[in-house]
Every structure is written in structure tokens, then in C-alpha cells.
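Incident log, support desk, overnight shift.

02:14 A customer reports that sequence design results differ from what the structure should imply. Their input is reproduced verbatim below. On-call engineer (initials T.W.) acknowledged and began investigating.
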């Protein structure tokens, strides 16, 4: 009868020639749907002579037991349905209930090969290791290779499969040392094969040989290992344990206790199961005192890369000249045992794979060992190995692995090329998803795209209901918010952001001082920022948000001051009324759960707003640099021949202003009597004289090199910050040093640039910090009367501008909060939109009463703050890219930043050395770095890319390119419109335009299909969407899923 395509192929490999199996073409072609019937040896034809009767009787009983086990395995396999696939069986196995003993752990796999050095006894030598990717000991034996993706031959995988079929499989072995393991393995080998006593003892002796690891190079000069067999038998093994920190306390010995089961001696020459002539060989086994030395010299750097709770898988392969047939065993220990000296690092061993064969096939054994070690690193087979109940489960795991492998043609690929580990490894979860007979997966339910479904944005229908839930959500984490801030990463974050926040606050104060004639200036700005920031950091729902000044607020202040000046009103009093009304309106918004409207702010609005703020940061940084060219102009087309005629001196002003004349009258100064040409620069400026001469600039004498030196500081700060921030991924210095340099990148750059500027001595513009803690003007105090000299109706009219101000505050605050609370940031402590708005409103009222500037969430500073607190996995395997774990959520960085800002008045002596071009370079760095991750700019680049060179973005798979361009052009138009409004006198209506983006986004529903918008406009991280997309391609609604669940339940009962 012909074999159906899906019928299992029986492997007819014999036990006598495990490594010389010839596969038929039909078997090779059908291996992807292979399910193997195991043939166990049923009898013996050979006879052994000169063996004691007791041993023969025992082995005959073992053989009878082995036959019954083999028959049971065959009966078990016959119950498997013929239509089962390896993938289905693996899903059965993984779906079984998991007990504590068979819970999967991370695995470290080590490949040891037995070797004989010239003039020395044989020993096991470590040749390769796997934590995730393969690392080999180079031919010189002095170093490890770079981690690389293991490439295996298909032939070695089939040979490995035959080894599992024909070898010994011992699951959940109870053993406490390597001797006991060796004895149990050999006993089961004798049950299947007839081994002479001499061969058996030689194999046992080989298994107990010393293991030489690559890290042993550092301790070659330790005390020699000298120990007799009698002493080794008396040594007691001490149990190992794991402390609370997850570190192993390694006190277990390599040898077994004297009470461990030993084969009974059969002649007077045998002692403890070994002949006398083996005493010198067994002395090579690690001594207890040497084991203590072994752990003193553990490779601590590599140990840190191994996850806590990991277990070891040891692969032992090699050739022995006295063997006629291979000895193969797969062992799973239960529980895992720390076999000191067996593994490079002191972790308990869970699995052993032993392959010892006849002489002449060392390379073949090596490749099988590599295949075993590599397949143990596979996520699916790793879980199968832990849960397997018998040999067939292991075979199903191997067949499922073969189902997934990719074969490279020998003529198109060089196997000697080592493949670099990928930056990201695709998830293997889809291999665990239950499938149907044709291989398609059960449908995966996609997540909702582009919407906020968190409980913090749901309307409660109760007064202050959302606020109460925010408080309940944040209170359990309040203490941890301070404990989690005790980290070196947080120190780097607040040092960098303190310098980054200082300059815009002082600059904003200076601009506000010019606009309000000194009524609110730099000192008020410093105090307001410090008070608001400290309060917000202590009590806000999302303390990662950094508060700062915004352009629309400055425009609002200018318009309000001009209005008060035109109508002879008190600016500070009217401003206080507006601020109090704004705070009251914010309180109403909090009480009515108005923050739930944030759910209508999608990626379309977020990215337009964030991109605008980033571009403004970049633009203003460059603009401030060009502005230095006015104060320190360039001598263009200078005639060097007339350099000696250049001069700049003070002279009497041609047309003195009324202010200048009033100053002279106050000081009783007569202009003709002043020796103007002999005055210094400071004296000339004090008397308000004018500078004349070819060496003068717009504001007096200057140094021609300042602009060029400022440009060097500006771009040097930007490029050095970028370089140091990326230093974590470089190849230089140890991991800890690279990580520290990356964390402190911007702060180190600022310190280095300040030092260079000080040494060079070019008089660049410096940061000016107020030195006295008092109001800028003497005619105002720290508390403002809300009415003052204004008429009573000003209080009634204040709600009108307050409404506009409330929209401004609400939009700036909540859009920034949405960006910070994105899902891709993996925040675990929740957020609090209502609580954030309440704190901003309360502090806005306080600042209004004290006559201080208003502060709201600063988008770029907040994004930079979040980026500086990113957490990555510490125990990344060699070659594996660190995984992003989330953000260090805490309150200390913001608290310290704004506390230091308040104390800056007392640190003028140190801060005056910071050049302004360095701070401008920091602004440029923050603007550019914040652009990363904004999908809008990725789509913008597509306009200049041919289709074949475009990246594999998820939306390009499902949305036509013309629709992608249309969406990008719409967003670009909105961005340009926002820019025009924000930089024009109409900037006061900027919040209304941002609100209008929500309605523009709603209109796109008429131009794009809902499915297209779900890919172009949502908040899901890109890599997560790709995984969902790959899963959905295999999804198909099928009634067989119900049958699958029934089959799974029946298998669990079986």
C-alpha cells in the first residue's frame, strides 16, 4: 500500500551503527512531517564469557526490564494517531500542566570534548558554549570567538535524531554527583548492550576525567591535584544552595559521598568499582580544595550575563579507541545538581548529553554535539526538554525544530562564514499557538489600534471620580518612586537636565523682563520654576513630565501687558485675576473628568505637536548661534595691510537721548568736560557714550574669534553628546564603563567643553544667573493684590482671557502627557491625567498670587527625561542586543532638578563659567534626539526613496504608497500651519489650532479606509505590530480548533 503524504516515516536505524545510517530519498523529503516509531532492542545474540554469575544475573534482570520498557514505548507510540504532526504534538506537550519540578529555566550549554595531550592523561576540554548564540574556543586556544549564529549541517541533525532514537534516555534521574550519574548511565547501557567490565570501567573513568575550561588559563599555577582513590571515596559532598540574591553559594564537591550507590566489586582487584591501576587516572578528578579555588576564579564578567536561576546543559562528546560501538545517553536530572568543576560557571546542571564513540570520527561527534547544544538553545525545544515524559516527546521536539530550519545550498553559501547575531530576534510564540492539520494557525486577536483604553481615561460619571482613582492608583507606588530613584542613572539624568532646564528658564525670564519692563524677569522665573517643579515632582500623577515655559505663554504675556499699558491697568493685578480664574477652570475640568477627552488625541495629533516642538528647539538653537554674529561680527574682506590703522575708541554721542541727558544731569556731568577718548569700555558704557572706529562692532569693541569659537563649542557639544550617548554599543572598554559613559554623556560633554573654553580663554558669551534673591523691581513684592488699582469690573472680565489660557494649558499639558505615557515606554506604575492637571492648576494659582511666570509640561524636556531613564536588560547573552525593559519611574530626578534650580542663585560663581554656545548645543542635541521614533519623519523620507529601497515598515505592507504619501502630506500641511501660527503675532490662538488637529484627523475617515488608518495612525510600537502582522497572516477561522482542544484534553488525561 502506498504511504499517504502525512503518514509518519519509521526510522529503521540500528543500534549497532548509529552514526552510519543511510536515508532513503522518500524519508529525507518527508522529514518535515516526520513522526517516528521507536525500535528498541528486544533480545541479545552475543554471549559474554568469564563473567561472574552474580553480575550476569543482575544484567539479565536489567535486560528483561529494558525489554518491557521498550515494549511499553512501542505500545505508547501506537496510540498516536497517524495524522499527528510534530508541531501538534509539541503544542500538546507545552499545553500540559506545569509542576514546579519541570518549570523551564534559562539554560547555559557547554560543549566539552575529551582529548589527549602529548605526554599527559586525557581530560575534557571546553570547546564551545551557548547562552543564546554560539561561542567557540579559537584554534589558538587563547580566546573566545565572537558570538555568532550557529550553522548546522542537516546530516548532523538527522544523526542527532538517531542518537535520541537508539540511545539511552533517562528522564528525571535522581543523582547527586557525577559518579552516580556515570554509574546509572552505564547500567542502562548494559541493559541494551553487553559491555565488558574492563570497557565499562574505562568508560566510567573517562566520564570522571578532569574538565579543563577556557577560564582555567588564569589559574594554571595553582596547587597540583594529587589525591588517591581511597581519599576521594571518603570525601563528603556538601549540598549547594542559592542565596536570596540569586547567587550560588558553591560548596558542593565533585565526588560522591561514600554512601553513594556503587556497583559491587566482582574480584579482589576492584575497589570502589574501579581497578587499582585506575587510581592515578581518577586522581585527576577535581579535589575539594581545588574546587574552592575553582570558584574563587570564576569568570565573574561572564557570570553576570547568565540570568538568575539559570541551569546548565552539558554536552560531552569524544572518541575512545577501546570502544567498538557508540555510547549515547540523554539525561535530565531532577532536581538540578551543582556538579562542581563540570561546568565553566557554578550553576546547577539539569541536562547531560553523552556521546562516546569509536576512534576516527571526532569531527562527526563534534558536529552532533554542536547540534545538541544548539537545539537546546531553541526556545521551543528547550521547553519540550523540560516537560518531556518519554523519548517520543523529545523526538517530536526535534522534528518540530526541523520543521522550522532553513537549508542553505552548499554552492551559494560558505559554511565557514560566521553569521553576526541579529539586532532583534523574531518571537517564537507563534510556534506555540495551536495549529490545524494544514499548518495554519488559530486566529490571533489583534489589539485595538490607535485608541487609549486605559482605566485612567474612562469617565466615572462622579464628581472628581477620575482624580480619586488617580490617587488610589499612585499611592501604592509612592514610596517606591523615591527608592527607585537611588540609582547612578538618575544622577546622570538630573545633572544633564539641570543644565538643560536652567538656560531656557533664565532666557524665558529675560525675554519676559523685556516684554514687561522688568515686572517679571529672570529671578522670578527661577523661583517659579523651582516651586512649581518641586510641587509637581512630589504630588503629580506622572512625575516623569518636566515643566517649563512655552512660547504661547510668552505671547499671551506680551499681549496682556500691552493691553494693560494702553488702558492704564495694573498688569500684575490683572494677571493675578486671570491666573486665579484659569486655576478655577482647571479645577472644573478635573472635577468633570475632562481629561478623558485625551482619548481622541491620536498619533496624527501627537506627532504633529511633538515634531513642531522638536523643530522649534533645533531652529532656536541655530538662531541663537547666528544671533551671536551680530554681537561678534566677522571681518569680511579685511585688508591686512591696513590692520595697523584699526582702532575702536569711546566718543561723545552725537544725539544723546533724553534718558542719557537725565543721567548726566543726575551726576552733574558736562559732556565736553569728559575725556571720552581715554575712557575704558566699562566707563564708556556707564556714561552711555558711543564707540567709533573700524574695530568696533554693533555693541562696542569685540574679539573677532568669538563667533568661530562659539560655533566650535556649539557643534562640538552636539556631536560629542551624540557620540558619547551611543558609546554603549561600541566595542571599547568593559560593559559597565560603556554604560556609565552613555548615561553621563551630556554632563561629561558640558564639563569637557567648559574646561576647554576656560583653557582657551576666548571670551565667549556666558550664562548669566541673578546673584540676589529679591524682586527685579523695587516697586513690587512677592505677593500681588488681585485687584490693586484696577476697577472692580476687571475681576468679572478676567474669565474671558482665562478661558483661552485654560485651553492653552490643557492642550500643552495633556498632549505632552499622552506622549510620555505611550505604550512603547512600558510604564508600569500607571499615569494620572486628572492629578497632573490639578497640580498644574494649583501651582498656576500660587504663581499668579506671587507674580511668577506660569509653567506647564515641556514636550522636548519631558521626552529627553524619559529617554535618559531607559532600562535595558543587564544579563544579555553574548551577542544578544540588550532588551528594552521600560523606564525607571521615580520622582527624585525631577525633585532634585528643580531644587537645584532654586539654589542656583547661590551658585553663581560656578554657573558663570558655562558658555551659552554649549547650552545651545545641548538644545540642538535634545531636539534632534527627540525626533527619533517619530513615524512622521520616517514617512517623510519615503518621498526620496525608490520602492525597492524602502524599509520594511508595517504600514507599507498594507497601505498603498500613494495613500501613505497623502497621509504624510496632510500631516506636513498641518505642521507648517502650526509653525506659521506659532511664530506669528497670532500665536495666542496656537492651542486652538492644536485642538483643530483632532477635527482634521476625524475628516481623514472620509479619505482613508479604517484598516489603512489603523496602520498609519496608532500608538502601537512598530515591532509589536510586525509580530501581530506575521501571526495574522497565518490566521484562519477553523472548526478544527475545537477538535484540537478536545484532543489536548484527552492527551493530558493520557
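02:41 Re-run completed on a clean worker. Output:
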Amino acid at each position: 500500500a502506498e504511504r499517504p503524504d502525512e503518514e509518519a516515516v519509521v526510522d529503521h536505524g540500528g543500534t549497532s551503527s548509529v552514526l552510519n545510517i543511510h536515508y532513503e530519498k522518500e524519508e529525507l523529503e518527508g522529514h518535515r512531517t516526520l513522526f517516528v516509531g521507536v525500535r528498541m532492542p528486544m533480545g541479545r545474540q552475543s554471549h559474554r564469557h568469564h563473567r561472574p554469575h552474580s553480575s550476569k544475573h543482575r544484567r539479565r534482570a536489567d535486560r528483561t526490564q529494558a525489554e518491557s520498557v521498550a515494549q511499553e514505548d512501542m505500545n505508547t507510540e501506537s496510540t498516536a494517531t497517524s495524522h499527528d504532526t510534530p508541531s501538534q504534538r509539541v503544542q500538546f506537550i507545552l499545553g500540559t500542566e506545569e509542576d514546579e519540578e519541570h518549570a523551564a529555566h534559562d539554560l547555559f550549554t557547554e560543549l566539552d570534548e575529551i582529548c589527549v595531550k602529548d605526554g599527559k592523561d586525557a581530560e575534557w576540554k571546553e570547546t564551545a558554549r551557548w547562552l543564546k548564540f554560539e561561542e567557540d574556543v579559537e584554534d589558538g586556544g587563547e580566546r573566545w570567538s565572537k558570538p555568532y549564529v550557529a550553522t548546522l549541517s542537516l546530516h548532523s541533525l538527522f544523526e542527532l535524531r538517531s542518537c535520541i532514537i537508539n540511545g539511552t534516555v533517562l528522564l528525571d534521574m535522581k543523582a547527586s554527583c557525577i559518579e552516580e550519574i556515570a554509574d546509572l548511565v552505564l547500567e542502562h547501557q548494559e541493559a541494551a548492550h553487553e559491555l565488558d567490565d574492563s570497557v565499562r570501567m574505562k568508560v566510567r573513568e573517562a566520564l570522571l576525567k578532569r574538565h579543563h575550561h577556557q577560564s582555567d588559563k588564569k589559574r594554571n599555577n595553582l596547587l597540583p591535584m594529587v589525591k588517591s582513590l581511597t581519599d576521594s571515596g571518603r570525601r563528603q559532598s556538601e549540598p549547594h544552595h542559592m542565596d536570596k540574591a540569586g547567587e550560588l553559594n558553591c560548596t558542593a564537591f565533585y565526588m560522591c559521598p561514600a554512601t553513594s550507590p556503587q556497583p559491587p566489586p566482582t574480584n579482589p582487584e576492584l575497589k570502589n568499582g574501579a581497578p587499582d591501576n585506575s587510581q592515578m587516572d581518577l586522581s585527576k578528578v577535581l579535589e575539594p580544595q581545588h574546587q574552592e579555588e575553582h570558584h574563587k576564579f570564576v569568570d565573574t564578567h561572564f557570570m553576570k550575563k547568565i540570568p538568575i536561576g539559570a541551569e546548565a546543559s552539558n554536552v560531552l562528546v569524544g572518541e575512545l579507541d577501546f570502544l567498538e560501538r557508540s555510547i549515547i545517553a540523554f539525561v535530565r536530572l531532577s532536581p538540578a545538581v551543582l556538579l562542581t568543576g563540570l561546568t565553566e560557571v557554578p550553576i546547577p546542571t539539569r541536562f547531560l548529553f553523552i556521546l562516546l564513540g569509536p576512534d576516527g570520527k571526532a569531527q562527526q561527534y563534534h558536529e552532533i554535539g554542536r547540534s545538541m547544544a544548539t537545539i537546546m538553545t531553541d526556545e521551543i525545544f528547550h521547553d519540550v526538554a523540560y516537560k518531556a515524559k518519554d523519548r517520543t516527546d523529545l523526538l517530536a521536539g526535534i522534528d518540530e525544530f526541523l520543521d522550522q530550519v532553513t537549508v542553505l545550498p552548499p554552492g551559494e553559501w560558505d559554511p565557514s562564514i560566521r553569521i553576526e547575531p541579529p539586532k532583534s530576534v523574531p518571537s517564537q510564540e507563534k510556534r506555540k499557538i495551536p495549529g490545524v492539520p494544514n499548518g495554519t494557525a488559530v486566529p490571533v486577536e489583534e489589539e485595538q489600534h490607535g485608541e487609549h483604553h486605559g482605566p485612567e481615561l474612562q469617565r466615572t460619571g462622579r464628581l472628581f471620580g477620575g482624580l480619586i482613582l488617580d490617587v488610589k492608583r499612585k499611592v501604592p507606588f509612592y514610596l517606591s518612586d523615591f527608592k527607585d530613584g537611588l540609582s547612578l542613572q538618575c544622577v546622570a539624568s538630573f545633572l544633564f537636565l539641570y543644565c538643560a532646564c536652567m538656560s531656557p528658564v533664565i532666557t524665558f525670564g529675560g525675554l519676559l523682563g523685556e516684554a514687561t519692563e522688568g515686572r517679571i524677569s529672570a529671578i522670578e522665573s527661577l523661583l517659579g520654576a523651582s516651586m512649581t517643579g518641586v510641587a509637581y515632582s512630589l504630588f503629580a500623577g506622572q512625575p516623569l513630565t518636566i515643566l517649563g515655559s512655552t512660547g504661547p505663554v510668552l505671547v499671551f504675556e506680551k499681549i496682556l501687558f500691552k493691553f494693560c499699558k494702553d488702558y492704564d491697568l495694573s498688569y500684575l493685578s490683572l494677571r493675578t485675576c486671570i491666573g486665579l480664574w484659569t486655576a478655577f477652570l482647571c479645577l472644573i475640568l478635573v472635577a468633570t473628568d475632562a481629561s478623558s477627552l485625551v482619548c481622541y488625541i491620536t498619533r496624527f495629533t501627537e506627532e504633529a505637536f511633538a515634531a513642531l516642538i522638536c523643530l522649534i528647539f533645533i531652529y532656536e538653537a541655530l538662531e541663537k548661534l547666528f544671533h551671536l554674529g551680530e554681537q561678534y561680527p566677522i571681518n569680511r574682506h579685511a585688508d591686512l595691510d591696513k590692520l595697523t590703522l584699526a582702532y575702536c575708541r569711546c566718543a561723545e554721542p552725537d544725539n544723546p537721548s533724553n534718558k542719557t541727558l537725565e543721567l548726566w544731569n543726575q551726576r552733574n556731568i558736562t559732556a565736553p568736560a569728559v575725556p571720552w577718548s581715554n575712557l575704558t569700555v566699562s566707563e564708556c558704557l556707564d556714561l552711555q557714550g558711543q564707540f567709533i572706529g573700524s574695530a568696533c562692532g554693533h555693541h562696542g569693541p569685540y574679539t573677532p574669534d568669538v563667533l568661530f569659537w562659539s560655533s566650535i563649542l556649539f557643534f562640538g557639544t552636539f556631536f560629542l553628546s551624540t557620540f558619547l550617548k551611543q558609546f554603549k554599543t561600541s566595542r571599547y572598554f568593559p560593559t559597565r564603563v560603556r554604560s556609565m559613559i552613555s548615561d553621563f554623556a551630556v554632563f561629561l560633554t558640558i564639563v569637557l567643553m567648559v574646561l576647554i573654553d576656560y583653557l582657551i580663554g576666548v571670551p565667549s558669551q556666558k550664562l548669566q544667573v541673578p546673584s540676589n534673591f529679591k524682586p527685579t523691581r523695587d516697586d513690587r513684592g512677592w505677593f500681588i493684590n488681585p485687584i490693586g488699582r484696577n476697577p472692580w469690573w476687571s475681576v468679572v472680565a478676567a474669565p474671558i482671557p482665562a478661558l483661552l489660557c485654560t485651553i492653552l494649558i490643557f492642550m500643552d499639558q495633556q498632549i505632552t502627557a499622552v506622549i510620555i505615557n505611550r505604550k512603547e515606554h512600558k510604564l508600569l506604575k500607571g499615569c494620572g491625567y486628572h492629578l497632573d492637571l490639578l497640580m498644574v492648576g494649583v501651582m498656576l494659582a500660587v504663581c499668579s498670587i506671587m507674580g511668577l511666570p506660569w509653567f506647564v509640561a515641556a514636550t522636548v524636556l519631558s521626552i529627553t527625561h524619559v529617554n535618559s531613564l531607559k532600562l535595558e536588560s543587564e544579563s544579555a547573552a553574548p551577542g544578544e542586543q540588550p532588551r528594552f525593559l521600560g523606564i525607571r519611574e521615580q520622582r527624585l530626578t525631577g525633585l532634585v532638578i528643580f531644587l537645584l534650580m532654586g539654589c542656583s542663585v547661590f551658585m553663581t560663581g560656578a554657573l558663570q563659567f558655562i558658555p551659552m554656545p554649549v547650552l545651545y548645543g545641548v538644545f540642538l542635541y535634545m531636539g534632534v534626539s527627540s525626533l527619533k521614533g517619530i513615524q512622521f519623519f520616517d514617512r517623510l523620507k519615503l518621498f526620496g526613496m525608490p520602492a525597492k529601497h524602502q524599509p520594511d515598515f508595517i504600514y507599507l505592507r498594507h497601505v498603498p504608497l500613494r495613500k501613505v504619501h497623502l497621509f504624510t502630506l496632510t500631516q506636513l500641511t498641518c505642521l507648517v500651519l502650526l509653525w506659521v501660527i506659532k511664530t506669528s503675532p497670532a500665536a495666542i490662538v496656537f492651542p486652538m489650532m492644536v485642538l483643530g488637529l483632532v477635527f482634521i484627523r476625524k475628516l481623514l475617515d472620509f479619505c482613508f479606509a479604517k484598516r489603512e488608518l489603523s496602520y498609519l495612525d496608532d500608538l502601537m510600537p512598530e515591532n509589536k505590530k510586525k509580530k501581530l502582522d506575521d501571526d495574522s497572516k497565518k490566521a484562519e477561522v477553523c472548526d478544527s480548533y475545537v477538535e484540537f482542544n478536545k484532543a489536548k484534553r484527552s492527551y493530558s488525561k493520557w
